[in-house]
Design a protein that fits this description.
By secondary structure, the protein is of the alpha/beta class. Helices cover 33% and strands 14% of the residues. It has one domain: P-loop containing nucleotide triphosphate hydrolases (Rossmann fold, 3-Layer(aba) Sandwich), CATH 3.40.50.300. It is built from 7 helices and 6 strands; from the N terminus they run βαβαβααβααβαβ. The chain has a 6-stranded parallel beta sheet, with helices on both faces. Strand 2, helix 2 and strand 3 form a beta-alpha-beta unit.
Length: 201
Amino acid sequence: MVYDLDMGKGLVYVFSGEGKGKTSAALGVAIRMLLGNKRVVWVSWFKCADWNISEMGLPQKFVRQMRMYWMGEGFYVKEPSEISEGVKIAKLIKGCVKDKSSFERHKKAAHRALEKVKAELISANPPDMVVMDESIQAINDGLLTEKEVIDVLEIRGKVHMVLTGRGVTSGLVKYSDLVTEMRKVKHPYDTGILAVRGLDY
């Protein structure tokens, strides 16, 4: 059965897990929306506005359909030994990983990003889809709560939502319409191959 937007709220998609591909999957869905002449808003947690990553060029290609907001302070690293795939890529790109920033600074940035999503959803002309990139990681890091995120999802109306990040919570699994887990089997980084433009960023 084809889902009819008039039947209810927009769908909630989650891409989580330890493997690579979460943001890439969200980008694929976003491109599909854009090519269907729909409007997309992308809000990124952690990632900095001055990172030189390929997807930042999307608004130039889809001028009237795509807006992207880079709300991060760098990937939050609790312990020096805790280096995620995102951190590895970030260090390669710009050195923008502010793992020495305070917890409160990261938390404020996470809440600013959540407020941006809320503002888009309650605007007079909301988009057709909002991507909350790395928002689940923000929950996993204790920068947001599951309830705070679900409360914002509750006001989505007919807007489709896509969330990414490691460590999806049981409450989000129950709440979402689709949950896909990326499982790492192999990764080139483990053999010393660094991130490749176009493949990884």
